[in-house]
Amino acid sequence: MATKWTKDQASVIDHRGSNLLVAAAAGSGKTAVLIERIISLVTDKEKSIDIDKLLVVTFTKAAANEMRERVGLALEDILDKDPENDHLQRQVLLLNRADITTIDSFCGRVVRENFHATDLDPNVRTGDPAEVEMIKKDVIEDLFEDLYNKKDEEFLGLVDLYSARNNDKPLMELILKLNTFVDSSAYPEDWLDASAEKFNTEGKDDKEIISSYLGPYLLNEVGILASYVNRLEGIVDKFEAYEDLLKYCDYLNYHIAYIRDILGTISPDLGQENASLKSDMDLNLHELDLELLKADIDRYRSEKGNIKKFKISRNADPSAKDEYNQVKDQVTKKIIKGVKECLGRLYISLDDVRLELDMAYPYMRAISNIAKAFRKAYRQKLKGLGLVDFPYITHTALDILIDKSSGRPEPSKIALAYRDLYEEVFIDEYQDSNMVQELILSTISRTSPGNRFMVGDVKQSIYRFRQAMPEIFLKKYKDYNISQGPIEDGRKILLYNNFRSRSQVLEACNHVFMSIMREATGELDYTDKERLNPSAIFKELDLECINESVYRDGFNNEKTGIKPDISIEDYNVGGPVEVRLVDKDYNEEDLDLEGGDLDDFKSISSFRSQCQAIGAYIDQVVNNNKRPYLVFDRKLDKYRKIEYRDIVVLFRSLKSRVEDIEEVFGQLGIPVYSDLGGDYFSTLEVSIFENLLRVIDNPRQDICLLSVMRSPIYKFKPSDFALLRLLDKDLDIYGLLLKLYEMDQEEVDGLGNDYQDLRTRLVHFMDQIEVYREMSRLMPLDEFIWFLLKDTGYYAYVGGLEMGQHRQNNLLLFFERARSFEKTSFKGLFNFVNYIDRVKTRGSDMGEAKELSEDANVVRLMTIHKSKGLEFPLVILAKADGKFNFRSSDHRLSLHQDLGYGPKIIDKSKRINFPSMAKLYIDKKIELEQEAEEMRLLYVAMTRAKEKLVFFANTDDYNKQMEEWKATSRDNNGEIEDYEILNSRTYLDWIMMSIANLDDRGKALDSRGQEYKYRGYKDTKWIIDVEDRLEVFKRTKDIEKRLETQIEKPFVEEIVEKPANRPILVRPYDYQTSALKPASISVSEVKKIIEAEDQTQYENMYMSRSIPDLKTPAFMHGSDSNLSFSPGEKGTIFHLVMELLDFEGLYGLRDDKKALNDKIEDYLQGLIAKNILRPEEVATVNRKWIGDFVSKPIFARLSQAVSQGLLHRETAIDYNIGLSEIYKDEPIDESERMMLVGIVDVFFEDQDGDLVLVDYKTDYVSKDRYEDIVARYKPQLDLYARALEDISGKRVKEKYIYLFSVGDLVSYD
User: Fewer CB atoms < 10 Å away: N or C end of the chain?
Assistant: First the structure.
């Protein structure tokens, strides 16, 4: 049956005569339409086109292959109806030659067909990504070495500014990052020059500096200031209805009047009441008088103190009080404070701007020059090796297609030839294009009339981190018009009918995005025109359209027939969108857990608790036979019961927590397939084989050597290593092997039988490794690895283990990687081992071998990015409360394609640094772009669902958070204010602020068949369910118990007693208890054991060692404007500051508070300049704590000790202590010892030669916790004192802790 196209789809298929932009929403059938358009062009009776005259560009090879296949099938269907058609037969033959390809492949073709226009060898090949990274590393190291030798002043200045204390790695990384960044620019060298020259003031007048440098900065600040005054005006409009708030309106109007005057100086239009900054408003900033602007700001500042403040009357109307209380803090703490900060940034003089530019220019010029030098050296290196990378191919293709001989870029003769060749250029996923791709494809496309067909959905542009530029799509979207015929510039057609999802899913999506997505927040206004229109056909549920298997499986256990008395009410389909929250708070009275369950519950993380909630939910949905949830199967054309394969759990990103999810789901009996993280190299079979290769390459690697010897390949036992160690206590492992290997037989005989057996096995091992070493030098790498897998029997061995086929496939994948490596410019085992290290360092783990079929009945786990283009009946978006992980700009230099460099200004001589105006604006611009991309990611996630959409999240206090969501600020039209949307940092906030104020409408079933109240209107229906984490834990335990009872008892072989010649005695190991204890333990862990009421929770400490708080890498935090650090991280930062603090210098300023505070601040800024701490880390340091500490008598003693050289800070201790002293209630021999390790914050030697010990504590201390905290740290101080006394031989006379939060010095003497 022929496909019935909608009117808009038919317009897309039939359009001719101009460029066409198709805005195709999720589920709109854009691929089917694109293929039908290709077929219609090929089979057009009036003007048919050969298929090889079309260029179809997609962004993945998989998409290109799928499209080629679908076009082929469509052609064959038509040919079946008209088998004698010569033209159709020709198209089938031409299909293999058709340019249905990726942009990279097309550029490669342009280069291959036009080598004569390049300086490349025709035999070049494309380098492997890891190989290319290794070459880049070699090139930059050689470049830096050369610059050092030349004593290049420009370069040495950069090293001084951008390197760490003892290495130049940060500067190398910056240059490599910049190189990757500019690869997406059409002309990278021009971009580097233009970005540097923006800071050059030579020959530029004031207007030019304001226009070129200050313009974007001022535009941003003016927009912020205008938004603040708009908010104040909105509050005034609302409050004028209350007589008791009229004076408050007067107070606000004073501020509004002054701010409008300031805005009027910038632009008369902005001086008008309720005026806001619009994208098409011309501010004429180059004419701005900055001195007049400063005068207006000064006037406001001076008069602000005279504005009479408002205090609401006690007798005021209650409703007026409520309204006032809701906004007063917002006005004073956010709006007025924000206005003050904004005006501070607008208080600019041109002299200051010129000074900033002059300070930055030398370094920006140097960075561009070095980046250009690196790019030149890198290209020469690639050329010498006969290699290219993808950016090289792309830019070479661009050079072939663009002729710049006339001084401006024009299509070359080769490009014009391609224009003649291609009748139409199709571009799929157009929203993900970058400027290079856009320039290439526009150059080979015709102009009058245009012949480009561009299809995409800007709301699904989620690859900006790969330098995609959705603004390319948006510009055409705004410029092109909707019309019935061709338009000279181009026509656009909107496909917003969704043929995938139920109306409840789509209307929920529409409601959320009409609430939060607009040009100011999401780069696009989500209006009625953009809304998704439900067009999918789901049959009405009746008994005729339910698959028979549902009756049998659900209602008849004997499967002998269909239960006769079932009704349609026994089934559940579709339903509202669900928001399921796991609340941290729970009722203590319900805590009736015991033993291990209680310990598990108390130690469970919030994320794991959410995983349990998701797992329990899936279990109840899939295994519900009382009221089964049905999904519509289009293949069967009937409803069937939901299965695991119908469910996907989406995460924003989740590489480090995959094991948690898989473990929880496994405990609940849920089959799961994860494509979230790559841990290929950590799989046992690959790890052991990799270590074997490392040993063959270099046997003097103890850990690798031990791994191989203990592996199933060689089967050495722990007792063998004990025997080896007895030979010599100082040699490394390989040295011990050599010593025994080279012994005379007489010496071995003298050592005993154990050594004779060990020597025999050792000789075999060493001889075989030596043979392998020789073979590795003579054989190609891939052949050698295949030989090794077979000769060792390791490949066959892993095949006999559990999941043996999967393990063998992992080893085959390793072999394939080696075969690919053999084709690179690097050869040999040594380079391959380095290559593996490089792959690991880049984080580009290959991922385990995958054997999952499409129909495998498992729950899928995947990221939102990987889900794009897919669809599932039930979509669960997990961790909706996760903070947006904005990719923060380099704190030294921000980069933006349109705006160029945003440097931090650094003056080494004055030891100061501050962000430039360009950096402030670029960082803000990047944050807004990333927030818009997060919004689009949420859109992609929500539109994956066909039948049901469920959100899961954690909350700390649901009732409190719900009140905050309900109180979200709205304008006079009831729309959520822009700033509320932009200040949100989770998907949950966006969703809840959109639906919190919806009214309850009735009751509906969730997908588990349970009845809930829902809120919303028409098909916009939401269920909000809150369950505390205790309820979740108990529910998962119930499921686990149910599963235990369902597991059949394992078959037990009947044991027949047989007479034995002698009894077998099994003697218990005398030191079993000691063997379960760790070899070393920290003082903090000992403190926990001593103070613990129930020591049993520490019996397995060796398996659950606590990990100290370490400095968290920057990428694990959010954006610069909204970083979060754990208390442990803050404590670590503060301890580092105290370790490096200049005690003598601060003590001399103890009586001058201002000078002391300035000194502390200078010192902290110095830590930033030296790259010891990042600015956001320094921001966590409490300056008052340090200042208060300086005033204490103990600080005087510390300062004196410094001057005498008697102060010791952050001293590591290793102290031997008896196990029985720690584990007092366990049967441990007194001779058993362990190593006690710890760090003493500070101690010093007094005038009597005794020691004084001080330990810093940054805990928050309240009155009710004070005594507990003091008592808690006594065991720790006693252990430190004992260790110091034994190690130093001196008496610890005084022991203190200093509690910074309350400024108390606590003595333990």
Answer: N
